[in-house]
Structures are given as C-alpha cells and as structure tokens.
Design goal:
It is built from six helices and two strands. With 164 residues, it is mainly α. Helix 2 (48-59) runs antiparallel to helix 6 (118-141), helix 3 (69-89) runs antiparallel to helix 5 and helix 3 packs parallel to helix 6. It starts with a strand and ends in a 23-residue tail after the last helix.
C-alpha cells in the first residue's frame, strides 16, 4: 500500500515547507478488541460500601449461614486481589512500612486452601475479612483508594434550624 503525502504549505510568507507521510487507517486486531472487551465485562468496579458490608458479614459475631460461605469467601478473595493491585500500583509500600506486611498477609490469606468443615471455614473467612479491612483502611489513609461514601461525615446534612 502506498503512503499519501500532504501537499506543501504555502511558502510565500516565509514559512517552512514540509511534507509528512500519512498512513491509512488500520482496523484493530480482532483478538485484541475481544480481549479488551472481555476484560471490561469482567471488571468489578471499586465499591467501598459493598466491601464494608461483606467485611461486616465476615466479622459479625454471628457467622454467616453455611450455604453463603463460599460466595462471601469468593467476594473477599476478589477484594483482596483488587486491594493488593491498588497497593502495588500506588507504591503504598514505599510510602508506609505497614503496607508491605499487609500486602504479604493479604496474599497469604487469599492463597490458603479453604478448610472443609464449617468452623474452620468461619475462621478462614474472618482472616480474609480482617485482611481486607486493614489493607483497605491503610489505602484510604494513604489516599490510594477513595473512602466509602457511607463513612463520609457530611452524608446526612443537618436539618435547618426550626424544623422538627
């Protein structure tokens, strides 16, 4: 395929002449587009409030029902993956020495095999909940992730004076 050149600029006013080749537009590779589309479909956006709800379920004094354990554990594993990614990308370990310890712990807890019996599964779920909670709190403190909307102080505006 040949390249097309732009016409020369007007040189009567003393401007420099130039010619620049222009490549014809190419369609993107189909496999690359499908791969990017699959990644977008699998993307789970950050939702700090949903994370807090799941951490609260994992750390509650009344453990979750047995049939809900696997789903909650999978979500917590996903949160750990995202948080570790946020921490590494924001170079949190360079800004705070606690980050390295929490990243290592998050990876270890995530890689543990879930126990087969219910009481041990509750313990594993709680370790994951604590790992999510502590790493998330540190990243919010370091401004690597946004704090949950539910914890903002101005979320519930005060009513005007004179209203019941």
């Amino acid at each position: 395929m040949t390249t097309v050149a732009l016409s020369r600029r007007d040189t009567s006013a003393g401007a420099a002449r130039w010619m620049r080749p222009v490549e014809p537009a190419r369609l993107p590779d189909r496999a690359a587009v499908e791969s990017a589309l699959a990644a977008l479909r699998a993307w789970d956006p950050y939702d700090g409030d949903a994370w807090l709800d799941d951490v609260a379920d994992a750390l509650d004094s009344a453990p979750p029902a047995e049939h809900l354990m696997d789903e909650l554990a999978q979500r917590l594993c996903g949160y750990l993956m995202q948080l570790v990614s946020y921490a590494v990308n924001s170079e949190a370990e360079l800004r705070d020495e606690r980050a390295t310890r929490l990243i290592v712990r998050a990876r270890e807890v995530r890689e543990e095999e879930p126990p087969g019996d219910y009481p041990r599964s509750v313990g594993h779920l709680r370790r994951m909940g604590w790992a999510v909670n502590e790493l998330h709190d540190l990243l919010v403190e370091l401004h690597a992730v946004k704090g949950p909307d539910s914890l903002k102080e101005d979320r519930w505006p005060t009513p005007p004076q004179g209203t019941p």
